[in-house]
Design goal:
Blueprint lengths: L2 E2 L11 H12 L6 E5 L5 H7 L10 E3 L6 H5 E3 L1 H7 L4 E3 L1 H5 L3 E5 L6 H13 L1 E6 L2 E6 L3 E6 L8 H4 L4 E5 L5 H17 L2 E2 L1
Parallel strand pairs: 2-9, 2-10, 3-6, 6-9
Antiparallel strand pairs: 1-11, 4-5, 7-8
Length: 197
């Protein structure tokens, strides 16, 4: 199944500070990630997702969906292998998939506390340690953490806010010419009908 092509990072109108922050974090993960704060419709998610096209070939861009379970994020015991083969196997989660790339959390301020704690631990150590049903497994999990949030929906826990090296306030353009350019670029992109596999 194909999905629509991501809106190009360079095609976002304005938002120079946010673009620069994302590019800096992609070049130097030691910066500690980027938090994009702004109102709904200010292109936070579009910018974050557009960063995927700017990463080196093979670097993953993984989105942590709202409502993801701890097992989906951390990884878990592969029950199918355990029941059918009697084998103890680890099924990696989103943190393993994000290793060497970007982990994007939209509406990061709405993330449940237990997942915030997991992200804090892994972001600090660069190692994901999982213990399930008597099985211990650890793997490297170094990634650039990118989060977006609308402050009107609640603030971010201070401990997680500290994990972001850069925080950028994003505002929707108010200039009529800029707003018209936003619409023109979006319509042009959508009309192109490009798809990726």
């Amino acid at each position: 199944m194909t999905s629509p092509a991501r809106f190009p990072f360079s095609a976002v109108v304005g938002q120079g500070e946010a673009r620069l922050a994302l590019l800096l974090a992609a070049v130097d993960p030691g910066i500690g990630g980027v938090l994009l704060r702004g109102d709904k419709g200010s292109a936070k998610s579009t910018l974050a997702r557009g960063l995927a096209g700017m990463l080196p070939r093979g670097a993953p861009f993984i989105e942590l969906p709202l409502g993801a379970t701890e097992d989906r994020v951390l990884g878990t015991l592969d029950l199918k292998a355990a029941l059918t083969d009697g084998a103890t196997q680890f099924r990696p989660g989103l943190l393993a998939a994000a290793h060497g790339g970007v982990l994007y959390v939209d509406e990061v301020n709405l993330l449940p506390d237990h997942l915030v704690d997991v992200l804090l631990d892994v972001a600090a150590s660069g190692i994901n340690r999982v213990e399930r049903d008597g099985v211990s497994h650890s793997h490297p999990a170094r990634f650039v953490l990118v989060g977006s949030m609308n402050p009107e929906e609640g603030e971010l826990r201070p401990q997680l806010l500290d994990r972001f090296g850069l925080s950028v306030e994003i505002k929707s353009p108010t200039d009529p010419l800029q707003r018209a350019e936003v619409v023109r670029r979006r319509l042009t992109h959508d009309a192109a009908g490009k798809v990726v596999g």
